[in-house]
Design brief:
The structure holds 2 protein chains of 2 kinds. By secondary structure, chain A is an all-alpha fold. Chain A has helices at residues 4-24, 45-59, 76-86. Chain B is built from 7 helices and 7 strands. Chain B has helices spanning 19-30, 46-56, 74-85, 108-135, 160-180, 205-214, 223-233; strands at residues 10-14, 34-39, 60-65, 88-93, 142-147, 185-192, 245-248. In chain B, β1 (10-14), α1 (19-30) and β2 (34-39) form a beta-alpha-beta unit. Chain B is of the alpha/beta class. Classes of the chains: A mainly alpha, B alpha/beta. At the A-B interface, α1 and α2 of A face α4 of B.
């Protein structure tokens, strides 16, 4: 179980990185809600790859690691949950 | 010169302790880059090259030991290098083994070892180097040069598996160039002909003569020729060159 502050840090870091990457790559973002499907967020696959690399650098977390995942998260909420669970 | 100079762009050169890799490392360092030569052991030549680079006073040449066949540790190794020297700008995938032998007689373990060291290791290392560039949002771009070989385009009996590994780097180069181009990164390959290195020391004098006589310039290419080609691909003059292969073989495949 994460302390609320840790979960908040992970969430705020992910949101901040998404906004920063979208600005760098000149992408228009949809409103960032938990139900937002990543494919409809405005980020393309390269942006998602940049996001994962950035989060590894800032949070020292890579849930996609060397063995990868069976299912890539579909929504932003699932993506954030994956990082929260990786901190356990 | 300080141990880490973050003002210089960092370039990792694998197999950089001797032969072609050392020549490339020295050339890039003399072009002003901070080069991190990676190999299992430092060998006998790196310290001399370091002294030459220090005397030239343009770049820097460091050595970091790593066995690239240890795939699981490559991600942590890249993080270690980034923390020690600063963000990575470039990578030269030069390390390779050149085991020769007829395919029909080659032990399966040797085939697997060749493919692991010549293909899987550089691809895995590139993955983490690209992530290092991505982690800073692609700011400043980056350069990758994969060392292929002319045997990827012309046949040479006894080098079928080696040729397969070197051909695979060309496909890797082209597709990765498209993947990371939007980040301002270039990815190219250099295909040397037979040059005088440890890898070609088994060639007999008649074989050398035959190779030279088949070349347009009637000679073999040298390590410095290849090193200068790599340095060019790292220069500002090559900023719009990506996804291609530069052959350096004195016209052997012309």
């Amino acid at each position: 179980m994460l302390f609320p502050s840790e979960a908040e840090l992970i969430r705020s870091t992910i949101i901040a990185q998404i906004e920063e990457i979208a600005a760098q790559q000149k992408k228009t973002l949809a409103p960032l809600t938990d139900n937002l499907r990543l494919l409809e967020s405005g980020l393309d696959s390269l942006c998602i790859a940049v996001l994962v690399a950035s989060l590894d650098d800032r949070l020292d977390l890579d849930p996609f690691g060397s063995d990868g995942l069976q299912h890539f998260p579909v929504t932003l909420g699932e993506f954030i949950k994956l990082y929260e669970n990786a901190r356990h | 010169m300080p141990a880490t100079d973050h003002a210089m762009r960092n370039v990792v050169v694998t197999g950089g302790s001797r032969g072609l890799g050392l020549g490339i490392a020295r050339s890039l360092a003399n072009a002003g880059f901070q080069v991190i030569a990676v190999a299992r052991g430092a060998g006998a030549f790196i310290s001399t090259a370091q002294a030459e680079v220090a005397e030239a006073g343009k770049g820097a040449l460091h050595f970091e030991p790593y066995d690239l066949s240890a795939l699981d540790g490559i991600g942590d190794f890249v993080k270690h290098v980034s923390r020690k020297f600063g963000p990575l700008y470039g990578l030269v995938n030069n390390a390779a083994i050149g085991s020769a032998g007829l395919l029909s007689n080659m032990p399966n373990a040797d085939i697997e070892k060749l493919i692991r060291l010549n293909v899987v290791s550089p691809i895995t290392l590139t993955k983490y180097m690209v992530r290092s560039v991505m982690a800073r949002g692609g700011a400043g771009g980056g350069r990758i040069v994969n060392i292929s070989s002319v045997v990827s385009s012309t046949g040479y009996s006894g080098l079928s598996v080696y040729s397969a590994t070197k051909s695979s780097l060309l496909g890797f180069t082209r597709s990765l160039a498209r993947e990371v181009g939007p980040l301002g990164m270039t990815v190219n390959a250099v295909a040397p002909g037979f040059v005088e290195t440890d890898m070609t020391h088994d060639l007999t004098p008649p074989q050398r003569k035959k190779i030279a006589s088949r070349s347009a310039l009637q000679r073999m290419a040298e390590v410095d020729d290849v090193a200068h080609a790599v340095a060019f691909l790292f220069s500002e003059n090559a900023k719009n060159i990506t996804g291609t292969v530069m052959t350096v073989d004195a016209g052997n495949t012309a």
